[in-house]
Batch of 4 targets.
Target 1
Amino acid sequence: MKHALIVEDIPETRTWMGRILALAFPGIAVRAAATLEGARRLLDDPLDLALIDLNLPDGFGAEFIVEVKGRFPAAVCVVATTFDDDEHLFPSLQAGADGYLLKDMTVEQIQNLLLGIQRGIPPLSPAVARRLLGHFRAPLPTVPSRPELTPREQETLALIAKGLSIKEAAAILDLSQHTVGGYVKEIYRKLGIGSRAEAALEASRMGLFAKD
C-alpha cells in the first residue's frame, strides 16, 4: 500500500485515521478530503486504499465507492463509520466496498484488520461480520422479481448514474428531453429508487459502468 485517501468530515477523526494508516503501512502517502466533492478532485492521483465515511456533508459515501472502483478497480475501499445497520451496511457492500470498519474500535484493532488486506482478508469489524452471518442464516423473505429494464432504459440509467443531466443524456442518445425524462421516471419506478445515488448503485450492480 503506497497511496491512501481518507474521506471524513470530522478533522479529529481524519487525523486519527491517518495515524492508523501510518502505523499499518509505514511510508504510505495519505491524502484527505472532508467532502465527496473534495475527494473527487483527488482521483487524478494514484490510489491503493480508501477509507470512506458514509454520512458526508454533500452525499452518501457509497456513491464515492462506485466512482473509485470505476477509476481504480484494484483499489481497496473500506467504509469507516459508526453505523452498523442494514440500511448502511448492505448498500455499501453493493457499491463495491471491500471492508466495513466501525469507529468504536481501538487503534490497534483497526490497524490489525487493515494489515489483513495484504493477506487477502477483508477488513470487517467483528460486529459487522456477525451481522452478515446472521443475515444469511435468517430465512429469506420472498421478494417479487422486479421488471427488467429495456436496452434503452439501461443506456439512460448508465448516463444518469454518471451524473449527466437529462438534457446531456438526451443529446448523447439523440432523443428529446421529454423522452429521456420519461425513461428516467420508468427506471425509477421499475427499480423502486428515488435518487441519483441509488441509481448509481443500481447501475454498478447491473454492471453498466463496465460497458463503457
Target 2
Amino acid sequence: MGIAHHEVNFDSITFENSAICIDLPNKKQITVVSIYRPPHGLIDTAELNRIFCSNSQVISFGDFNAKHSSWNIGRSNRNGHLIYDWVNNNNFSIIDPLQPTYFSNSYALNATLDFAVVKNTSAAEAVAINALPRDHNPVWFEFLLSNVLPIPLRSLTTTNWNRFQDIISRNIPGNPTINSIRDIEEAIAKFECGINTAINLSSKTKSINTVHRKLPPFITNKITHRNNIRKRWQHTRYPPYKTA
C-alpha cells in the first residue's frame, strides 16, 4: 500500500522546487518540498513564506547554496544570512549534517550547502553519505513526525503593531488584478500568508513557567553524541571525527 499524497505547486523564481502533501494517519497533513537554488542571485524569502504558510507542518530540504556559521564550517554568504534570519524570525529549525555536502579541490572551499528547514518538527537528524563520485554528497534525513512540540501552557506574546503595519504595507498589494477564480484563490492565499508572516515578524513570545517537553532518550543521546563529535572535529580536524 502506497503513501497517500498529492502534488502541490508553488510558484517561485529564485529557486526550483518540487512539492507534495502527505496525508498522515492522524488525519493531519505535512508538506514536503525539495529545493534547489542556483549559485547566483538572492533567494526571496517571500517565496519561502508561501511554502511554509501552506501547512501546519512543513519539511523543506535540498541544495540552498547558502552558507552560515551556524551550519557551515567556512565563510558565510548573503543568502546564508537571509535564511538564518528568516528561520529565526519565524521560529523554524535548520537540520544540517555534521559533514560538508560540497567538496572542492581546495579544502578551504568545502561547504555544507544541503540542509533542511522544518516547521513544527522537533526531532530530526541529517547525515551526509559519501556514496557518489561527484562534488556533492547525498544527505539522509530522518524525521520523527509524531514528536511535535506542544504550544506552551502559559505564554505571553507581544506584538509591535507599528512594525506589523509597515510589513503589511510593503508586502501586500492593495488592489491585486483579478480576472478569474484562480486569481481570487491566489490573492486570498497571498493575503493570508502575508498576515501570518507579518504577525510572526512583529511578535515575540515568552514562555512563563512552562514545562519543556523532553525528547525521547534515543534522540537526546544522538544529539549529545553528535555535538561531542562536532566539537572534537572543529578543535582537532582529526579525519576519523569527520566521518564518525
Target 3
Amino acid sequence: MKRVLFLGLLCLGFHAMAFAETAEEANVQQSINALLGGDAVRSVRAAPMPGLYEVVLKSGELVYTNTEVSHIVVGSIIDAKTRVNLTEKRLDELSRIDFSALPLKDAIVIKKGDGSRVFASFEDPNCGFCKRLAKALQQVDNTTQYLFLYPILGPDSEEKAKRILCSDDPAKTWQSWMVEGKTPPAAPASCDTSAIERNVALGKQLGIGGTPTLFLRDGSRIGGFLPAEKLEERLRAVR
C-alpha cells in the first residue's frame, strides 16, 4: 500500500513539474506577445542555457529571455566545450522543410548529367544573385534543379516570369535570360500562369524573404548565393 501511495505521489510530482514548465512557457509567450504587440511568437521552450527560454518569433528570429521576461537576449549561445554555435544549429533545424511536400509540378525542371543530386530553388528573374547562381551552376554537374519562379522584385519580374514559364522550353529560356541576357519572348494571352501565383504564396508560407533561396533534398535551406565549390560541398553532404 505504501509503495502504491509513493508511486502515486511521484507521478503527481512529475505531472505538477511538467505543468509548471508548460505554464511558465505560456507566460513567457504571453509576455513577449504583449511586449511586441499582437501574435508575434511562434514557439517557446527551454534554452540550452539554464534559466533562459528560447523564443522563436513568427518573423523567423530567435531570441532568449528569462522567466520574468525582464531581459531579452539577441545573439548566439555557444557550447564552451564543443565550440558549437547552438543558436545557429537551432535556426538550421527550424528552417528545414519537408522536401517531398514541395509541389514540383509548379517548378521548371533543369537536369544536368545523371540528375542524381536534387535541389529546389526560389528565384526572381531580375535578381542579380540569382544570375550569379545560374552561372555558377554551369560548373556543377549531375543535378536536377526544381526552379520555382518567385517574382518578388516588382511588376517587371512578374512579366519576365510569365514569359519564361510560357515559352516553348522554359528551362532553356531561363538559362538564356539569366546567363546570356536574351530577353524572353512575349507570353501568349492564353497561357496559364497560375503556377507563379502559387509559387509566391508558397514562398511566403515558407518564410522566403529574398532570392535565391535553395532547399536541398534533406530539407535544409540555403539563403542566398553560394559559389560553385561551396554548393558542391553542400550537395555532397546530403545523404
Target 4
Amino acid sequence: MLEKSKTPALTRALDILNFISAHGACSVLQIQEALNIPKSSIYNILEELCRQNYLIKSNDGSYSLWLKVVELSNQVLVQMDLRAIAKPYLTDLMLATGLMCHLGVLDQKAAYYVLKIESNSSIRVHSYEGKRLALERSGIGKCLLAFQPEDLIQQTIQNLNFIAKTENSIMSIEAYLQELDLIRKKGWSFDNSEDVEGVRCIAAPIFNSHNTLEAAISIVGASIQINENNQEELVRLTTECARKISLKIGARINQY
C-alpha cells in the first residue's frame, strides 16, 4: 500500500498531469471521476496548472498539456544528450592532459558533476558522478555561476557559505564577486586548492544555441599536475574543448 501523501494538493496536481499525459485532452468530469478528486479542489488545481502553463484549457472545456511540460522535457533531454555529446570530447581532453575531466551543471545552490572521465594517472583525486560542489569554492561552481544573469548571481551569493576550507578559500562576497568578474573576462575559472588542499581545477563554460550557459567542463588534478609551468596549455586545451562542445549543441560561432 502506498504511503499517504503529506502534500495531497501537490499529489493531485501530479496525478492530473500524469492522467492527461496518458489519455490526451480530458474534461473536468473525466479527470474527477478517474482520480476521485473533490469538486472543491479540482477547479483550483486546474486553474493553477493553467496559470503556470502546465495545462491549457480549450474552447470545449477540455484540458491538455501545455508549454511548461514541453520546456521541462526539453531541459531533461538536453542534459541527457549533453552527456553523450560531451563524452568523446572530454575523453580526448583527458588523453591530452592526463587529468580527470568532468561535465557539471548548476542546480540552485550548488554544482553537480553529471559526467566523469577518469584518467590513467597514478595520482588519483576522489570524485564521482552526482558529487555536489560548493559554488564558492570549486572551479566548476564558480564558472557555472559567473555566466548567469546578474539578478540570479546576486540572489544566489546571499545563500553561499564562505568558510575557510583551506588558506586559499574565498572568504567574502566582495572577493567572490571580483572573482566572478575576472572569470567572465578570462572565459575560464581556476580553483587554486580552495576547497581541498593540494587539488586544483580549471573549468570552462559551455553555451547553448541561445548563447546562454548550459553547463561547464573541468579538469582536476593535484597541484603538481596543474602548476605554473603547464597552466597556460591546460587552459587552452580546456577552453578549446568547451568551445567544441558549445558549437556542437548550437552555440553561435561569434560567441567565441
